[in-house]
Amino acid sequence: MTRRYAAIAIALVTALAFAAPRSVAQTTVSGEACLAQVRNALGREQRWFEAVLLGKPKASDERIGAVWFDKEGVPFMKTDDNVWKTTKGDGEQISDAQMTERSEKPMKLANEEDAAISIERTSILATTEEVTSNLLPSLIQSMRALRCRLKAVCRVMQLSQSKDAADPLIVKPDGCLAFEEPPFKSCAFQGTTDYDDPSQVIGACDKAMNALIDQQMSVVEMVVAYDASYRQLLRFAGEFEQFLEEFRFTLLTPLWQTVGILQEFNRIPCFASQCDI
Questions:
Q1: What is the b/e burial string over 75-96, where b = at least 16 CB atoms within 10 angstroms of the residue's CB?
Q2: Average model confidence (pLDDT) for the chain?
Q3: The whole model's pTM is what?
Q4: If both were cysteines, with which of 98, 171, 176, 227 could 148 make a disulfide (CB 3.0 to 4.6 Å apart)?
Q5: Are 99 and 164 contained in the same domain?
Q6: What is the pLDDT of residues 78-133, one digit of tens each?
């Protein structure tokens, strides 16, 4: 009987020994893990903003060499038609349909259905028959939405410090709509002794957010300058072509008449001895 109890005790201890590392691996609470999760969320919002600004085609229409991210933040590169491959792990390969299904989505609004968020986007700059100045309201609103989304990520990180944080968290930055996001499990510092100063992570998030906003502002300025120059060039070319189309006969008719008159000079007789025959 004693041997039986000893065997059960050994089996129980062995099971706990193997179960504990798995639990820790799934939710590692540390500054490094928290910052990695925050950077993943910030990068997701940046990529969504660039999709709104520059557009994002279907996975089947994407060019070779394009990089997409899945819901876990794992990058996949399109290496061939209907082939997406990642360098992480065992180099998993998926199809266009699988990439579309697993593709990341932005932070969801608290009153918005997840199915309403489409992966494919048409660029704001793809609007035709408009001057760039007419697109500025949409560009400014998109930039403001990016600022709200990045602030929401940092706010989610702050609320996630509590080990009893609600799931999902609903945050509402000042001047923005409410957003819904699951808590960052790796940022649950309260109740732990491994990380004594969570303010460092908060400061790092704010610093990364401001740097990201400044970077995207520079991108928008460059894109607007290029788009305005390109549209102005197309407009000038079209107007000049129309000008030539409407006035070419008015300009060329006198020239053709002059040529015709000069040809008629050969019919005038020559009475001077110096005339060439």
A1: ebebeeeeebebeeeeeeebeb
A2: 80
A3: 0.72
A4: 176
A5: no
A6: 999 999 999 887 889 999 999 999 998 888 888 776 555 677 888 888 888 888 88
The pLDDT confidence band at residue 262, using thresholds 50, 70 and 90, is: confident
Record the tokens describing residue 163, joined without a space: 């080990």
Say if 249 falls within a structural domain: no
DSSP H or E stretch at residue 32 = helix 31-54
Where b means 16+ CB within 10 Å and e means fewer, 109-147 reads: beeeeeeeeebebeebbeeeeeebeebeeebeebbebbb
Query: Within this chain, do residues 85 and 203 fall inside the same structural domain, yes or no?
Result: no
Is 146:49 a contact under the CB 8 Å cutoff? yes
**Total length of the chain:** 277
Asked whether residue 96 is domain-assigned, the answer is yes
Q: Find the domain containing 127 and state its range.
A: 19-56+121-244
Q: Is the dihedral of CA 202, 168, 97, 62 positive or negative?
A: negative
Q: Select the more confidently predicted residue: 257 or 6.
A: 257
